[in-house]
Structure formats: C-alpha cells, structure tokens
Amino acid sequence: MDLGLRGRTAFISGSTAGIGYAVAAALAAEGVDVTINGRSPDRVAAAVERLAAAAPDVRVAGIAADFADAAAVDRLLDELGEVDVLVANVGVFGLDRFEDVGDDDWQRYLDVNLMSAVRSARRLLPGMLDRGHGRIVLVGSESGVDVPGDMVPYGVTKAGLVALGNGLAKRTRGTSVTVNTVLGGPTWSDGVAAAVTSVAAAQAAPVATVRDAIIGQNTTSLLGRFIEPSEIADLVVWLASPRASATNGAALRADGGVLTTML
Known about the structure:
Low-confidence stretches: none
Strand order of the largest sheet: 3-2-1-4-5-6-7
CATH superfamily of the largest domain: NAD(P)-binding Rossmann-like Domain
Strand content: 15-25%
Distance between the termini: 28 Å
Largest sheet: 7 strands, parallel
CATH architecture of the largest domain: 3-Layer(aba) Sandwich
Number of helices: 8
Radius of gyration: 18 Å
CATH class of the largest domain: Alpha Beta
Number of strands: 7
Number of domains: 2
Order of helices and strands: EHEHEHEHEHEHHHE
CATH topology of the largest domain: Rossmann fold
Structural class: alpha/beta
C-alpha cells in the first residue's frame, strides 16, 4: 500500500538499532528521506550505510548526538533544519529499586525519555504549523500507563510522553499537523536482547528459555511473545502518513494486548 509519504523528510532519534532503526527503514521504504541519530558516530555511519544500501532511491543521513546533553541536541537540530516527520524514539530503561535511583539517574531518564521529545518538538513543531502539515510521533510504552514497580523512572517519563503528545496536539487545531504517541509493549529490541542474554548467562540457561519465561510471567500478554521492532514501526509509519489524518492527540497501542483496560 502506498501511504503517500514519498518525497517527505523525517528525523528519527535513537535510530541506529532496534525500534528506531526499524522505523527509519520502513519510512525509507516508503520513499521518505531519513535522518537517523545515535550517540556513537561509528554506529551512526554504519546504520546509514545499511539503510542507504536497502533504499538507494532516498537520501539517508545521520547525526551523532547524546540526547541527555541539551547543547548537543541544539547542535543536532541546527544541522537538521526542518523536517516533515519527527519520530521521537530515543529512550533509556533499566530495572532498579526505587530507593536506589538517585537524582542524577532520574535526571538522565527525564532528559533522554521526555526532554528529548520536548526539545525536538519545540524546535520543529512551529515550522510544521507554519507550513500547515507535519507529523510528530512519540514512541512511548505500555509502562507509561501501567508503571512497573521495578521501572518507576522509566514508567514516569513514558507517562509524561503521553501527556506531552496530548497537549501538543491541541496546538495543531485547524492544520494538517498531528501529534500522536505509540504505546509499545515488550519488544525484542537490541537493548532487551542484551539484557535477556546477560540474565541467561548468569543463570547458565538458554536465551530462548529465559526469553519465553519472561513473556510467560506476563499473564496479560495476548500475543504470547515479544513484539518485533518492525511491528512497532508499522504503526509509527501509518501515523506519519496522510492516511492517519483523523488521528490526533491519541495514544495508540502496539502492546500485544498487555494492557487490560478497554480504553
């Protein structure tokens, strides 16, 4: 299906691997010129090379920056210029006892998971409003709705992302600009795979056994497996397209049925 995105431009934060890379690849396959981002210049260059090889008909660029550093974000946005689609994907997560998370750790969660989207949207949304079209998609998590007790900072910042998307959407009234949030569920991203591999090594157990046990412990999962990054990307790309013109200010689920509420 042609989603009507050919010729548009997009920026995806945190996109050298995992969900971000899957989003960039899916947008590029739709004919979108994409700019990706990561902290490591080498990883950014390698991801640009892979994307360009897979989508030779579009322009692929990359900008290295740490979204925990406000000055680095400003420099990135200066270099980036205007884009039609902003996908705020960058994020950090971890399993921690609430009592053990200090102020500096909280600040990094806030800077990367929430302020990254604030700083990007603050710079890019006005241009979209002036042009009368544009898309902002915030990559959130089901943990922002049902906050895990061992991931409180992550859940709190992802809840803030939902609120941010809802509030920003109210500024788009009467335009063809939309702002939406995707609530992803347990996803087999590179970061999750590394964490599960580490746990498996500590337990001297096969990775597949530990992976399946984690999902098995999540009794509300209707999917019964980890979500693939490409499955999250499919929803993000649809929201970025003109076909999603009537969806604005929403938090849409790609959570595999983990959340049990009807709305």
